[in-house]
Request: fold
Amino acid sequence: MDLDVFVTAHRAEWDRLDTLLRRRRLTGAEADELVALYQRAATHLSLIQSSAPDPQLTGRLSQLVARARSAVTGTRRASWRDVTDFLAYGFPAAVYRSRRWWIPTALLSTLVAALLGWWVGANPEVQASLAAPDELREMTRPGGEYETYYSSHPAASFAAQVWTNNAQAAALCLILGVFLGLPVLWVLFLNMLNLGIGIGLMASAGRLDIFLGLVLPHGLLELTAVFVAAGTGLRLGWTVIDPGPRTRRTALAEEGRAAVGMAIGLALVLFISGAIEGFVTPSGLPTWARISIGVAAELAFLAYVYVLGGRAARAGSTGDLDAAERSATVPTAA
Reply:
């Protein structure tokens, strides 16, 4: 494409579109003309982006197309309908679509935590490198730090603190995934290392059942949310390497927008797990009852993803913005 010739051929249309956008009132004929010019300008922008990208011209046309799109479609305000649609379709569909990433992530991470737990529990020298013997006994004894941790603060404030920390960890996995997924692996390893150390120390003290009774009620849902975030972050990192049939810019935009939606949805999931950790885990309920609550929450989330999310995904939902809300460009061959 000869960019100078292209600009000379279409500059008058762009100027005319800009003129119409500056008017406060339009006649019927002018409104029809604005729509036609908007559609042509969107096509022109797509052609320039794919064939002869020029930053200055692309910026000008992007602003012009955005203004025209706003004038044509009107300003759209978010409503409670958007929230319900997101929770019923967008978020579960996004989690369902990324299942091939987060399920292997969950399985491998659980295996790593189990191996680390076995390594710590089977090697006294490893335990000695973590803390002094007196400190280890204080942590693992009946009524020790591992047991009192969940009841050391008021339930409401503890739940809020846990929710904040876990939401930040999930957001980091989603955001840092764009760096080829490497930071996600590190965040995930730190979480599994902490879990593995707890398993190993309590197992060596003969109190693994107590530890699991404290961790499982909230940990099932909490770790699932972390695994979903990590898997999505890894998928985003892979998109940088292999965007598939889409351009890398388009692929990152689509997957990135879906990841932002995932962060919001996972924050709600982690809010539930934080409430369980703050109010159920330290409660006086028998262990079987506390674990049953955790299992019920986990099964409810999986059913939510596989039933609602699977149905929404098969209907075409991806967790991305609706087509009408995306940038107004027309796909063209380069």
Summary: The CA atoms of residues 121 and 207 lie 11 Å apart. The two ends are 10 Å apart (CA to CA).
